[in-house]
Please model this.
Amino acid sequence: MKLFFRHQGQGKALIILHGLLGSSDNWHSLGRLFAENFSVYLVDQRNHGQSPHSDEINYKLMTEDLEDFMKENKIERAHLIGHSMGGKTAMNFAVRNPSMVDKLIVVDIVPKYYVVRHDRLIEGMKAIPLDEITSRSEAEVILSGYEPDTAVRQFLLKNLARNDEGKFIWRPNLHAIDEHLDEIGEGMVYQGSFNGESLFINGERSNYFADGDRELIMQLFPRARFVSLNTGHWVQAEKPQEFAQNVLNFLNGK
Model:
């Protein structure tokens, strides 16, 4: 699968993978900052953003997608940043292809199974009559019946685009994502460990980390370091400056 991506900067390759129902657009500002020091690739994973749709979505396929992406773009080795679902893709990729990964950064996710509680969000997105609405504000009114948090609604509505005919469409493949939420909740699909340097950044107010998770991470990523920021799940969006400083310190060996 040929993934859509945005590229900026030069130097060592840095590939960034978004989370579930996100896209490369979510990383535009941070990507521009990192591009001052690195050759940054903001990638849309399958069934998200402007990448192709598929009936299937799981970490084996997303790992293979990333392998193909690096080969097509002649990237032999790169730093990886992945948030949530993207973090699981990055962890699986690093375990499967350790020689292709320099440093690994995983944002607010652990290599274990989660029950993915996005079904209500997807239900709300599906409930919006795309043929009838004329503005994003109309879509938000409908979505507010399913999600009370304004920030989450705005995040989801970034996926709302117009086609060539000017009609609203959802960029994510909502049907495929809905059908495969259990697979998106999976942990590691490859056996082994990654012995390179890794940094795990979590939100102190997020519920994605639990007691014992650091021990689990150390079993698979024995050189892992940990940073906690005072945020919820969307660490990089809530504390972008602190997040960027921690990432740059790690990548620059500080």
